[in-house]
Amino acid sequence: MFDILKARHHQGFRTIGWPDSPAVVPDRLRGRPVLDEAACRMGCRACLDACPVEALTWEGALRMDLGRCLFCGRCAEACPTGALRFGNDFRLATRRREDLVAGRDGPRLAAALDAEMLRVFGRSLQFRQVSAGGCNGCEVDINVLTTVVFDLGRFGLKIVASPRHADGLIVTGPVTENMRLAVGKTFEGVPPPRLVVAVGACAISGGPFRGHPEQHDGVGGLLPVDLYVPGCPPHPLTILDGLLRLIGRLPPETPSR
Amino acid sequence: MSGTCLLRNGRATTLGRVPRLAFDGFRARVLEAVGEGKRIAALFGLPAVAPGAGPLPVFAVLADDARGDLEVLSTEVGPRFQALTPDCPQAHLFERELAEQFGVVPEGHPWPRPVRFQPPLGGGRDGLPEAASRGTAGAGQSDPPLAGSPRGLPGVADFFRLEGEGVHEVAVGPVHAGVIEPGHFRFQCHGEDVFHLEISLGYQHRGIERALLGGPHPRTLFQVEAIAGDTTVGHTTAYAQIIETLRGWTVPPRAEALRAVGLELERLANHTGDLGALAGDVGFLPTSAFCGRIRGDFLNLSALLCGSRLGRGLVRPGGVGYDLDTEERLQKLITGLERGRADTRSAIQLLWETPGVMARFERTGTVSREACRALGLVGPAARACGAERDVRWNFPAGQYARSGVPPLPDPELRGGDVLARAVVRATEIENSLRFLLDLLARLPGGGVTGLAGGSGAAVGLETGTPLPPDMLAVSLVEGWRGEICHVAVTDARGTFARYKVVDPSFHNWIGLGMALRNQQISDFPLCNKSFNLSYCGFDL
Q1: B131 has pLDDT over 90
Q2: Number of domains, chain A
Q3: Element (H, E) at A145
Q4: What is the DSSP secondary structure assignment for residue A176, as one 8-state letter?
Q5: Which has the closest alpha carbon to A220: A160, A185, A159, A169?
Q6: What is the pLDDT of residue A38?
Q7: What is the ipTM of this complex?
Q8: Contact A52 B221 (CB under 8 A)
Q9: Which residues in chain B are contacts of A4 at CB distance < 8 A?
Q10: Do B350 and A28 touch (CB under 8 A)?
């Protein structure tokens, strides 16, 4: 017993202060992309050609689909003028798929649920996680939210074992054909009203597997999605930020820069 | 063809040098080699380029742990062939895979059940079913759906059944209670006692091997990063070694060192997480809580190096994408590792001092040495059975050819139970930390990519021009779960005629099944965590 207390003392208090104090993120984190349109050599297409998942489009202005983006950074490396780079703002989650297609101003961050849904879910929201072809990358960074570092429980959020106990699903992976039935059944097992959160490039767009006949390019074609969390995988803070925005626990988006 | 073809890890040969034996000779040679102590590292077929292309070419890669070489041989099989499995149990899943991917029948196989419930990989050979066209998915086009693919629902197949009075069956999954990938487990029980556990996977099948055909494609590296997302550095290193040996690229020593840093950080994070999960499954919360957090601390060190907690972007063919560019970054990494050492020691020591933990770990889920050898288990699960089997020792490549990883304790102390698998992990955490701190104290200088134009050029160079035609390359990496084996075969056009991926989980899932025999069903979570195998790495 004494050894356990000694170990407890050694390990210390390690829960992060965010959102009450600033978050610490790695300086090399590839977060929200930053586009300097003045420096962009319009239409040189170097970034478009470098992207392995066709996340970038050019129609008079550069648009980036963060739902496809793997945040690999190849576009920024390819940019001859340094107009495109990945900053380390981790806030990326949106309520609508189209809000992930971003130009200069970045994605439109998720708004809170409506008043009635907030009344039901705002103080206690429980999710069942379903991996449907996820590579255990997104799963790892969801799991970590339940550790003392992020301490999901302090926000009234919880990952539960059964869909019957849940208010919604967190889906990862592109939804393989072999998991399609199980995803549908798990969703049916959640009593309404219910939410669906798509975490990671695969669950949003199929990620690096988009177009494969063995999967379904994400969960959006099968279930109504309430929150999209982009990344490959998203940083745990990106997921937590999205969930907290959903339940109105963070101030609405302030224009950055 | 005569003689044998022996390769070192990370080397290639022309296909002409690979002996092509008549099937009987091939079968006899594989059985003989496995009898001498070699292991089947890979056994796979080659999809047809065009319909009606004749019998199915099959390749075997046999690993000799003692001598550190890889014997490659090949044969051709018709629609039916005599299964190896009755005489060589470790062929069991490879032969089931051949049957599923190519429609061939391994006659005499004791349990010829689907592996992944996937559509055929390549048919069109004489007498074999038709299959998807090859090699377009990586380029970004949408493939047509596999219309009318003759497969049923995943998991819907025969299960091994026990019958008799008081016998019952427990079915679990595919969706499990935790944040974990899907798989179906079917227990045959008598009361609380498990007689047999059958594991039925395939739910995570994303078509990776099919997409790799005709590659490398622009997306290939990113799909390899996601073969098993918790083993990104392991699989990308294996892939990079394949490309490098085929293209004749030299990797600078500093890049090889940084790959080893990434690989050992991956091992540290996962081993630590596993020990925490084991503690959690026996209800010992202090170590569970501490290790869950320390695991994240190690992941953050990966992010310090490459921006991604899971090592995305670190390994690229030709080198690495990120350098320890400043003294400050290097010092942060060293400080983080030293802190990780103090924290893991404090957290893990509690396990050994707590009788309640030890009572649950000891003699639970024992896998015998004989079963380990016969089934060809790999990684910590094999080492916990006393095997001296580690790619870093037996087939060292890259940094590991320069500086070794410390050995494990006396094999007699590794008894194949949950405790042994925990002790092996705890020892490997210490060993990896020592290896890393030694390495970082004398990190080689120089650049981190051998390619002109810097690391950013690698993707174009890797995929833009054809590979040398008609070659075969083998690459092994000791990922944290064990041996990762990639084998590439190029065709006359210099694209992948086959890119075989063998995740350590492919060898080891059957080990979990063996561990459960004669155990209480309530010990399943503990036994499962003590293996912690990959679903997507298996399902591909």
Answers
A1: no
A2: 1
A3: none
A4: B
A5: A169
A6: 87
A7: 0.95
A8: yes
A9: 286, 350
A10: no
Based on the structure, what is the number of domains in chain B? 2
pLDDT tens digits along B460-477:
567 778 999 999 999 999
Which range marks the domain in which residue B438 is found?
Answer: 208-539
Classify residue B203: in a domain, yes or no: no
**Residue B401 CB-density burial (10 A; 0-12 exposed, 13-18 middle, 19+ buried):** middle
- In this structure, chain A runs to a length of 257
Decide if B280 touches A, using CB distance below 8 A: no
* Cβ pair B207:A136 closer than 8 A: no
B contact test, residue of A11, A186, A214 with most B CBs within 10 A: A214
Distance of residue A147 Cα from the nearest chain B Cα, in angstroms: 6
Name the residue facing B347 among A11, A149, A235 (closest C-beta): A11
Task: Indicate if B115 and B242 belong to the same structural domain.
Answer: no
Q: Is A72 within 8 Å of B313 when comparing Cβ atoms?
A: yes
Helices (H) and strands (E) counted in chain B, each on its own, are 17, 16
| Low-confidence residues in chain A, pLDDT < 70 | 254-257
**Residue numbers of the domain that contains A182:** 115-246
Assigned domain for B191 exists: no
**How far apart are alpha carbons B47 and B131 in whole angstroms?**
9
| Strand-strand pairing, B315-316 and B319-320 | antiparallel
Residue B132 has pLDDT above 80, yes or no: no
Chain B residues 54-93 with CB within 8 Å of chain A: none
Neighbouring CB atoms inside 10 A of B250's CB total 11
Number of CB pairs, chain A paired with chain B, less than 8 A apart: 207
B307 touches chain A (CB under 8 A): yes
Give the other-Cβ count within 10 Å of B49's Cβ.
16
Q: Is residue B195 part of a domain?
A: no
Three-state DSSP at A120 gives helix
Instruction: Tell me, yes or no, whether B107 and B235 share the same domain.
Output: no
Cα(B379)–Cα(B251) distance, rounded to whole angstroms? 26
